[in-house]
Records
---
Amino acid sequence: MPFSATDRLFVLTGAGISAESGLATFRGSGGLWNGHRVEDVATPEAWHADPTLVWRFYSMRRRDALAAQPNAGHLALAELERQMPGRFYLCTQNVDDLHERAGSHHIHHMHGSLFQSRCTRCNAPFPDAATYETTLPTCKVCGHPVRPHIVWFGEIPLALEEIYAELARATALLVVGTSGSVYPAAGLVHIANQRGIRTIYAGPEAPLNAEAFDEILLGPATEVLPTLAASLK
Ligand code: APR
């Protein structure tokens, strides 16, 4: 057993945990959407060049996420949180809401949330599940364009201080379903190593930063995570 119920667990998830719910991973799908590279629809430059294209991309992702259901991997992480009250922190790179719908509470979306938007001037995020294909949304207060509340390539992840503080308190780091190619998320394992925190990766293939982990549990999230949660009981 790579960690016990008395550990303080920091979990980092990536697109892989939602793969078995039918949501495409980034690198797995070749990084393409309707012939566009993800970098061409998920950057501030893309937003400035073609906001309609960007909103179409996120409208499609909103529809896909709404149609998806949490899988056994999401449910197992919610179960782990119940087994480790006050000693569990979930940091996800995912913008879907499947962790919340599975019952996770102590969760932070470091790359933003699909079901929030924000005014490009006022900046305050608000709940928004609408889709925008032709008419783009504008702020009801100041009239400026409203954008997805997503951290795009080249932007800074949300609440990094909180993430580093939670990692510093942890005794074990469990990373699930992320290719280890996007920083700073991919660097959390190195910080954990510097602090002597035990590190475990779970997923069907070794990530790019595999050599940094103490233990690799090879398999899909829906198999590895329920086994982990069951062994803690
Ligand atoms: N269970 C667990 N992991 C899986 C599964 C599964 N069933 N299927 C695939 N994976 C793993 C793949 O092996 C791969 O390592 O999920 C990972 C997906 O990697 P990426 O597509 O690179 O996604 P991610 O690492 O989350 O991307 C990071 O990049 O595009 C940006 O902001 C976006 O948050 C995203 C970030």
---
Amino acid sequence: MNYEKMNIQWFPGHMTKAQRMIEDNIKQVDAVCEILDARIPRSSRNPDIDRLAGDKPRLVILNRCDLADPKATAAWRRKLEQQGLAVLETDAKSGKGVKEFAPAVRRLLADKLAEYEAKGQVGRPLRVMILGIPNVGKSTFINKVAGRKAAIAGDKPGVTRGKQWINIDKGLDLLDTPGILWPKFESQQVGEMLAITNAIKADVLDKETLGANFMLRLREHYPEAIRERYKFEPEAEANGFELLEEAAKKRGFLVSRGEYDIERMANTLLGEYHDGKLGKLTLEYPNE
Ligand code: G4P
């Protein structure tokens, strides 16, 4: 697939900050819980997590399952479990899957609990570090686990907060970490995935190119989404801009005689994906 090239601005400082924060706090926790966007489990992972987490038991949350392709989510679950990670699928917005969290942590840390019990420390809370890129749903998830408004949620990519401990009644203490961006950004694809899923502001990228490449991805993996939503057959030879133009035509996004508004179409496409109107679509697969 010939994706269009894009210039992506990136901020290496965030990555260093994220690493330092994890390194400074890892000794205080019993386990590390990484929240990933189920639509982009590769791009939403911290590439250094294996090194940073050391030998701490780990749980991966595949969040936004409501927006992801269930088959792909199941495949990701298998792959992550093969790597020795405990995996949960959640939709933090509705709360689906969230009640499994506390039991999953207790299973993961059964040895630790037995150790506490042997020392007579019954009731000592298990401490879990919660990690995740901005906007992946950390606050929403924590609020649902806590059953109250413990963390501030909002759709503001790049907004950072300080770290905070949150006590959950179920014998758990969660260490909420600030929303920090960390993916290694040498890859254009990671940048695109983060922009499409709102982890970074799409404004730092060229929207039209982002939309064009997204169309190419749709044609490759979910052509039925183009057919059903935009009412045309995506031609195999067309480039991403041509696909956007075709969709703009069908929508009647005319700028002048015979000229269609590709930028508006790109915005519409990304907005509709965000709102789940294209169906449950995953953008990365375990065997790529
Ligand atoms: P953060 O702390 O990791 O930065 O993320 P936060 O919880 O603030 O969530 C960011 C947005 O994602 C919120 O949307 C939240 O409702 C939504 N969200 C979180 N988890 C899920 C999920 O599992 N499924 C879906 N569909 N959405 C989820 P928002 O700012 O209220 O607006 P909007 O993005 O819903 O329009």
